[in-house]
Amino acid sequence: MSDSEAKVHQFDSILVANRGEIACRVIRTAQRLSYRAIAVYSEPDADAAHVRLADEAYALQGSTSSESYLDIAQIVAACEATGAGAVHPGYGFLSENTAFASACEAAGVIFIGPPAAAIELMGSKRLSKVAMLKAGVPCIPGYEDAAQDTETLKSAADAIGYPLMIKASAGGGGRGMRLVQKAADFEAQLKTARSEALNAFGSDEVILEKAVIEPRHIEIQVMADRYGHTIHLGERDCSIQRRHQKVVEEAPSPVVSEALRQQMGEAAVRAASSCGYSGAGTVEFLLDRSGSFYFLEMNTRLQVEHPVTEMVTGLDLVAMQIEVAAGRQLKLQQSDIVLRGHAIEVRVYAEDPSRDFLPQTGHIALWQHQGKSVDELGLITDFSGAPTAVAARSGGLRVDDGFLSGQTISPYYDPMLAKVIGFGPDRETARRHLLKGLDNMTLFGLTSNLSFLSSILRNSEFISGRTTTAFLQQQSQALGVEQDEAGLALALAALVIYLKSDPRAAGLKASGALAIPVASNIILQAEDSETSAQAVRIRRIAAAGQTRQQQSEPIFEVTAEHGRHEFRVLTTEADAIMVVIDRRRIRVPFIMTGPEGGRSVWLKVREVSHTSHHAFTDVTRQRKSATASVGDGRIYASMDGLVIAAHASEGDIVKQGELLFTLEAMKIEHPLTANASGRLAAVHVSAGTQVKGRQLLAEIEIQPDE
């Protein structure tokens, strides 16, 4: 766009058409720039963090994404009702929706993003690849023509050679994507990819590409104004992925030289310029072992991982987006951009790594961290001079989160809770800051991937910087969830419950309060596993050479199936105990919930090599003995969700392993099977029932198999 065609738009309010951490992140910068920040929220999000943070909030009708945050008419109506002059879409939801960008323009609302035409072009893998080839951007050899009949595609596949990738043209996030190893598998994999693509994106169009084996995933951040000026802000390495979803991102890449950075940056600028791009965008490449790189796709929005670029450039990318959308010229030149320091980001999800990363929902009992928010970091919002990177100035921890203690994570949306960014003058310093930050975090109320992320940061392959997109698959055993093999967490949970519930233990610091040995038996069930409930015996013992009356710091013996532990209790607080075990002095934060007879305790345990979160429920009064197991005939919901099918009725005779219910949560179906054989004595839910995690769904009157 020429100088005469572009103009500066004046607006003083920005509506953020998103939720969670990205909504909070955009709101913080908007407020820092003195814009009125307006939030929108669905019915489950009425008390969400982004709603509390905003200057004003507008209620959307509906609970699911499609009913609320994806409803273009509702979002445009919210802009009109609140007088918003501009709308920031964040990422996901409507951020790459051509119809939404056009609807904003038609309503006279500034869309803080690229032109609709650029969104549409880059939303098609086939058309974008054709455009990139024309622009001279390196692309993976493949097939991107319009003809889509099976025979044509099969012939093209034979010409490309195997292994190859089938990719949904309109796709992303790994859906509609298949790796084909040999010609005999092509048609079956094509059928599956097309079906997934049609269901997910409404189009079964595909492209074919030669498979790049174990590449690095390198992306280049670009920024362009509406006057044809485009620069790049260096690369991010996003090679650590699970099911094509990024898990760890860092800037700069450990393997990209200055010369390669310049080549990739120039290619990314050509890609953006070729489609009349403006605003923030990301051009993604695959980097093979020889150092050759190939265009993968262009994301026409702010990326989840943008903070690592901010930390090594010092630039506030959201502020830059707002400046560009307002029609102001991008003053920074390419020579002003120098990457200094290092930043590493991990994504904290409500998911259970021990159950194939099953999404988790529930109540956040406690969330604590020691990180800084984006508005505390001094990122540059005045782009008149060369920036200085925050990572180069100091080391530390940044946390972009979107929830608060006491709030509920619902099954309606993506389970990402927060992004945690470690930064410092070099990669190792950034890694240590991030690792320490994760270890110091407390998240009680639902299971997360915090320990899994820490195990990645401790992995020798990651430390050496040698990771590729195959890292998680290759290191799956080394990254296995840390097991409580010695039963330390179980023993500590029992001790906490005992100290907080037995009136005789309340005065343990008083010399005469526990003048006689006190013993107690507790039966605990781990909340995040399907192991049997375990009996734990707790007994106060005397230290060698001392009488019990002389003890000021009592010692407790805790015995369970996994072994025996001795704890010397130094102090007890409302939310923590301090104990000594094997000469190690550790503080154990905890929180207790629930009524007596069903009390649950969440606690954080710092073991020798890692820190982990655990949850146990006291089922002493619910069980007659510690021999009760998962096969006791009670069927519980594995998580919050919707019962979409009940496959058996009261009175039916069922076999162990028989499918009883199908539960849907976060767009994923989860089967629930009978854990014993017998007669279905009671069914407490039906299809269409919304249930909570650990809710009792059915009871089986156990009968032996004949």
Question: In a nutshell, what does this entry contain?
Answer:
This protein is of the alpha+beta class and 706 residues long.
Set down the secondary structure blueprint.
Elements: E1 13-16, H1 20-32, E2 36-41, H2 49-53, E3 56-59, H3 72-82, E4 86-88, H4 98-106, E5 110-111, H5 116-122, H6 125-135, E6 142-143, H7 150-160, E7 164-168, E8 177-180, H8 186-201, E9 206-210, E10 216-224, E11 230-242, E12 245-251, H9 258-274, E13 279-287, E14 293-299, H10 306-313, H11 317-325, E15 342-349, E16 351-352, E17 358-359, E18 362-363, E19 366-368, H12 390-393, E20 396-401, E21 408-409, E22 416-424, H13 427-439, E23 442-444, H14 450-458, H15 460-464, H16 471-474, H17 488-501, E24 519-526, E25 534-541, E26 555-560, E27 563-572, E28 576-581, E29 584-593, E30 600-606, E31 611-618, E32 634-636, E33 641-646, E34 653-654, E35 659-665, E36 668-673, E37 678-683, E38 690-691, E39 696-702
Parallel strand pairs: 1-2, 1-4, 2-3, 4-5
Antiparallel strand pairs: 6-9, 7-8, 7-9, 10-11, 10-13, 11-12, 12-15, 13-14, 15-22, 16-17, 18-21, 19-23, 20-22, 24-25, 24-31, 25-26, 26-27, 27-28, 28-29, 29-30, 30-31, 32-39, 33-35, 33-38, 34-37, 35-36, 37-39
Give an account of the 3D structure.
This protein has 706 residues and is of the alpha+beta class. The protein has five domains: 13-112, Rossmann fold (3-Layer(aba) Sandwich), CATH 3.40.50; 141-210, Dna Ligase, domain 1 (2-Layer Sandwich); 216-474, ATP-grasp fold, B domain (D-amino Acid Aminotransferase, Chain A, domain 1); 488-618, no CATH class; 631-702, OB fold (Dihydrolipoamide Acetyltransferase, E2P) (Beta Barrel). It has an eight-stranded antiparallel β-sheet, with helices on both faces. A hairpin with a 5-residue loop joins strand 10 and strand 11 (230-242). Helix 13 (427-439) runs antiparallel to helix 14 (450-458). It is globular. 47% of the residues are buried. Mean pLDDT is 89; it is low at 509-517 and 624-630.
